[in-house]
Amino acid sequence: MRVIKQLISILIFTATNLSAAFAAPSEDFDYQIHVSLWTTHFNPKPEHNNDQNLIGFEFYGDRLPPSRYQRYRGISDYARPLAGVAWFRNSFGQKSLYAYGGVRQNFVRYGEVQTYGKLTAGLIHGYRGEYKDKIPFNQLGIAPAVLPMLGAQYQNSFAELTLFGVSGVMLTVGLNF
C-alpha cells in the first residue's frame, strides 16, 4: 500500500507542475482531491498505525455573502462551504470512512501562497471490535467528529495539517480542480 501512496503522491506533484505551467493561478475551484503523507500520534502506542493511506475528495460551493459582522475583508476572505468524503485506515489499521461538511476561510496571502483554515464536522465509520470505544459516541458504529485544519495553497496544489482530536496530526497534499 505504501507503493500505491507514493505513486499517487508522484502523480499529484507531476500534475501540479504541468497544471502550473499551462494555467494561471486559480482561487476559484470546485473540487479537491488529497492524500495523506505523514501522521503522528501525540501519545503513541504499539497498536497505533501511522500510515493512514487517506484518499479524500471535496466539493466546494460559492463563497458565502459578506455580513455586517465581517470587518476585515482585506485580510480574510468570504468563507466557502464544502462537503467531502475521505477513505482511510484508522489508528488501529481498520478501513474507515469520514463523510463531512464544513467551511474554508482564507487567511493571509504571501505572494502566490494563500493560507487558510478549514473546519469540518461529520460522521466517522470504521472503529470496530475491540477498538469500538476508542472514539467517543461510537455506540452504533458511527461517531460524530469535528476536525480543524490549517493549509497553504500554491496555484492548484495545497498542503494541510489536520488535527484529529487530541490523538494526533496528519499532513495531506492535493490538487484543486
From TrEMBL:
The organism is Aliidiomarina iranensis
The entry's keywords: Signal
This chain belongs to the protein called: sn-glycerol-3-phosphate transporter
Superkingdom of this protein's organism: Bacteria
Has UniProt tagged this entry with the keyword Signal? yes
The signal peptide, as residue positions, is 1-23
